[in-house]
Structure formats: structure tokens, C-alpha cells
Amino acid sequence: MNTHRFILMHILLIVSIQFYALTSKLIIDEVPNQKDNLIAKIEEDTIISNESMLDVAKVFSPPPGVVIFNSKSNSGKFVGSPGLTVLADGTYIATHDLFGNFISDTYVYKSVDKGKTWEYIAKIDSLTWAKPFNIGDSLYLLGVFKGKNNLGNIAILKSVNGGYNWSRPTDNKHGLLLVGDFHTAPTSILFYKNKIFKAFERTIGYQVFSCFIMSVNVNTDLLDLKNWNFSNEINYSKTFSKASTWEEGNAVLDKDSNVDVVMRLSNYNPDDRVAILKMTDDMNLTFDSVSGISSFPGGSKKFTILYDSLSKKYWTLSNYVLYTDRTNYNGYVRNTVVLAWSDDLYKWNIEDTLLHCADYYTHGFQYIDWQIEDDDIIAVSRTAWEDDTGQAHSQHDANYLTFHRFTNFRDKIEKKIEDTQNKNVLIRSVGDNLIITSKEALTGQLLIYDVAGICFYNKIINTDDKEIIVDVSFLNKGVYVFKSKYLSGNKINLKFIKSN
């Protein structure tokens, strides 16, 4: 093709794009209509600019996991409140809402092939922060119908055809449970003695909440208010901790067969603390501000806790902040998801890092909701990651709903020191030793820190050897950071896990 012809074609292409940008509107149909008008079109009344036309062709790497839904990063509509449950026939149901400068709706998806592919099946107007769960063949969503104050009424909806059609909470006989300014998240629902238990919050001030538990017998009509019981409320006080409030509690059964509520402590720095409330059989909720503040990896972000009867342990997937990523605002660092377990809800052991991205400004895996399926954990994530319109708005303002499977999670309990590698220095584990190998003579300073920043090992190395052995048998189980600024000219920041 000669030069003049190429230039002419290039000019025509630019003129075509500009004409389209000035005269056209983009109608985005996120998911095609598949079931009797249940799926409303998501329309953006947006003029296309030259810049956005070029962004469409931008090359990007997809996020980890299976993408269920992508709300474009430049849309101003951000993915929130991922929820997950598994129906009796093995169908996966995933839900989410959208947030931004508007009242959200809830969207429902299903997978019949173990999460490999997903179908969008329903939209529920104004419902948000909803947790899906099922009893037999009946599927439920328990959440909040938002009002003008961005909070709203507690409501429960029911589907008898796998999530395609839903009841409407018109009154207290049909799912409208409490009227007011309430808040929650897709945290755990506890099944115990033919009842379900779920934690909720009520606003008592600007972004300050009280906590309470609600419960119902599974053999009654869950849509009828008269069948529900409610605990007393406990107001959060800043005398309890340095957090701004507590919220998004998990109802769990402790080892004494009492129902506890494990509450997120928001904006608590340096992170890693939760509040544990106790409830008696007559639904009297209590809190001891001394013994009730406990350690928990990533406790200033939303988490879900489930008990596994096979391992006889409590498990969580949480946004623990690695030592190398710690800031003054750890509540907003969500670039890492760890797998952790506890025998008693008070002392937690981090076993593995499941998801991680080095950048914590525009990347995040958060609000993980999950289930145990045989030997695996299946999970959905509110994920912030680049898409074909550019970077995510922030790590908080997620643009994806993603599905993940973590296989053989119980095997992590037996995990040894994790092998890891950095440039010209190889670090591997043999028994209780770290073996450090370099292409050059090993010189410099070696340090090992725990996740709280306490130094357990500090040694100056000056040798002609290209391999040294560091005995770490003295370390307890946990996650550690191996650091060196000048180890044979290499700056090293590497995490390893010790589990024996």
C-alpha cells in the first residue's frame, strides 16, 4: 500500500470516529434478555468520545478467577456485596449489588457447571447488602431495601424456581420485617437447632451502628414477621476500641454452643482486631469491652467466618495486610486474601495467601463470601482490576464480580515453609531451614519479621559462600517476612509461611 493511500485511509477512519462520537449514543446491554423480561437492560446514555473509542481496544490482563460480571471501570457503577449459596441440586447462585451515586438493585446469577460459566437470571429493584441462602428447594435473599438515607428496611424475599422470580416484601406478612435505618452485609447465616441466626445493624449516628441478632425457625414461614425473634441491641461506643464503629457481623456458634457475633471493627489501625459479642439462649446479647476485643487477621474489613466439622476449626478468608503493604489506612488495603483458621474464634492462624496483587491502590479482592464444597472452598469476590476502559476507579470501587475455587483447603494446615524466589537469590525450605542461594557471594544483612513488625532474626552476612542455611525452627506457626536491603546487591521483601 503506497504512503498516500495509507494516509487517506487513516484520515477517513478518524473522521468516521468523530462523526460517530457526535451523533451516536451507546446502549450497553450487559446481559441479554433470557427469561420473560426478568432481565432489564442496563443502559448508559453516554456520548462516545474519541478517547473512549480508543480505550475499547486497550489490552489488559483479566483478573484472577472466573468473571461473572464486569461493570466498566469508567461507568461510575461499582460492584458490591457479593453473595454465594449452593442449591440442593448443585446449582451455584451468586448475587451482588451496585453502588455509586444512586440506590442499588440486586442481580442474581446461576452456574450449573461448578462455576465455570454463569448466567444472569434476575434483577431485584432497590434490594441491597443481601445474603442468599436456601432451605430445601426454597431460595432466600435477606437484606435491606434502601431508602433515601442509603439505609433502609430489613426484608426477606423468596424464590421457588431457582432464583428467576422473587416475592416482593409488601408488608409484614410477606417479607417486610423491620422498618427503619438498618445495615448489613452478606456475612454468615448460622443454622442451629432448626433455626437460622443473622446479625444486623441499626444506625445510631453518622456511620455508627448498634448490633443485634435476628432468628427464625426454619420450619415456619420466613416471610411472616410474627415468626421472627430479635435480641436486644448493643450500641457501639468509642470507649470499646479505636475503631470508628462495628458493623457487618458474623453469627457463629462457639465451642460452648453459644451464639456469638464477630463484628468488623472499621477504620481500626493498625488493623487485625474484631469485637466478639455473646448471646444467651433467651437472645440476650452482651459485650465485655475487655475480653471482647480480640485479634483477627484483617478485622477492619468485611469477612465471613464458617465452621468446618471435618477439621473442627473455624475458617475465614480475609483481607490481611502483609507487613510490606502496611500504611496508616490499612482498612483500605485489600490487595491480599489469606486463608486463616482458629480453634476458638480468638486466636487465628494464617495458613496461606490465596489472592494477592502488588498494587493496593487500584486492585482489591474484597467482601469475599464463600462456602465449603467437599474439600474445596468456593468463593465470590468484589474485585477491583483493570478492564478495557482502564484501571479500576480505586481498590474500593470494584468493577468485577469474580468466582474462585481454592482446592483441598484443609491440606493447608500441613503446609511447610513456602518456597519463594527473587531475582538472583533463591530461597527454599528444607525441614526447619531456609536455604538461601545466590549467584554471587552472600553479603549483607538478613532480617525476619512477623506480621506485627517484630524482628526475630537479625544477622550480618559476610562470606565468600554462595549458599547459607538459616535455622528457623525457633519460629512459631505463622506468616513471616524475610527482608534484606543489600543481600549480594538485591533488595528482598519475601513472605514465607511456617506451619509446623
Structure, described:
- It is a single chain.
- This protein is mainly beta and about 500 residues long.
- It folds into three domains: about 1-55, no CATH class; about 60-415, Neuraminidase (6 Propeller); about 420-500, Immunoglobulin-like (Sandwich).
- About 5% of the residues lie in helices and about 50% in strands.
- The chain contains two helices and 36 strands.
- The chain has helices at about 5-25, 50-55; strands spanning about 25, 45, 65-70, 80-85, 90-100, 105-110, 120-125, 125-135, 140-145, 150-160, 175-185, 190, 195-205, 210-215, 230, 235, 245-255, 260-265, 275-280, 285, 295, 305-310, 315-320, 335-340, 350-355, 365-375, 375-385, 400-405, 420, 425-430, 435-440, 445-450, 455-460, 465-470, 480-485, 490-500.
- Strands 8, 9, 10, 11, 12, 13, 14, 15 and 16 form a nine-stranded antiparallel sheet that branches. Strands 17, 18, 19, 20 and 21 form a five-stranded antiparallel sheet that branches.
- A hairpin with a 5-residue loop joins β9 and β10 (about 150-160).
- The longest helix has 21 residues, at about 5-25.
- The N and C termini lie far apart (about 70 Å).
SSE layout and pairings?
Elements: H1 3-23, E1 25-26, E2 46-47, H2 50-55, E3 66-70, E4 78-86, E5 92-99, E6 106-111, E7 119-124, E8 127-135, E9 138-146, E10 152-159, E11 176-183, E12 190-192, E13 195-205, E14 208-217, E15 228-230, E16 234-235, E17 245-253, E18 259-266, E19 273-279, E20 285-286, E21 293-295, E22 304-308, E23 313-318, E24 336-342, E25 348-356, E26 364-373, E27 376-384, E28 400-406, E29 420-422, E30 425-430, E31 433-438, E32 443-450, E33 455-462, E34 467-471, E35 478-487, E36 490-498
Antiparallel strand pairs: 1-2, 3-28, 4-5, 5-6, 6-7, 8-9, 9-10, 10-11, 11-13, 12-13, 13-14, 14-15, 14-16, 17-18, 18-19, 19-20, 19-21, 22-23, 23-24, 24-25, 26-27, 27-28, 29-30, 30-31, 31-34, 32-33, 32-35, 35-36
